[in-house]
Design goal:
- Helix content is 33%, strand content 24%.
- It has a single domain, classed as Class I glutamine amidotransferase (GATase) domain (Rossmann fold, 3-Layer(aba) Sandwich), CATH 3.40.50.
- The N and C termini lie close together (6 Å).
- 43% of the residues are buried.
- Helix 1 packs across helix 7.
- The protein is globular.
- This is Glutamine amidotransferase.
- Keywords: Glutamine amidotransferase.
Length: 242
Amino acid sequence: MRPFLLLSTRAEDDAADDEYTGFLRATGLAERDLHRVRLEAGPLPEIELDDYAGVLLGGSPFTTSDPVEQKSDVQLRVEHELDRLLDVVVARDLPFLGACYGIGTLGTHQGGVVDRTYGEPISAVRVALTPAGRADPLLAGMPAAFDAFVGHKEACRVLPPSATLLAGSAGCPVQMFRVGRNVYATQFHPELDVPGLVTRMHVYQHAGYFPPAELDELVARVTPAVVTEPGRLLAAFVARFG
């Protein structure tokens, strides 16, 4: 079996390593079968996409819709590299799944509108599949509605013309879409469990997602959450394209 590729943009080792662990757990892959490239650490190396069964893109502290003048040189480089990569992925309809940051990158790349209209606080929300979502092969066997972890400053407000809406929630109409047959993005985090979410809350408590003084209260609020279904999406991605 060809390995899968995980692209990460988290500069904090605790968050980056925990994200990698989350993807390993949800996909069921061994480390040898999930290669990781940390884009924030240096330029994207030359990648032969045919060597990989599929590409996964993790979440990010970067906010796609921020004004250019507010973005760091690293963020601008990462966005440029991902844009070039998506040129190839979309044109060839290669297996791709971007989580959270994937909505911003793929949505913007495909001409959608990504802004702060539908940001959601860190929480477990109810996600509902659309009719197209219920018919999508990657979502086969998923319940029509399920809980998922979210926490994002921006979201896709206007769906790209090339995209098919697969899922939404009350506070964020675009929770998942597909471009072509094999290119997917989710606003929710399919790789997260409660310990992973708590790790990120500690790492990013000063990043503007919530008032830092509310950390303990927020941890107590999310800890009882029972979120079981989103990880099946990653397992299905590996089963379908591996």
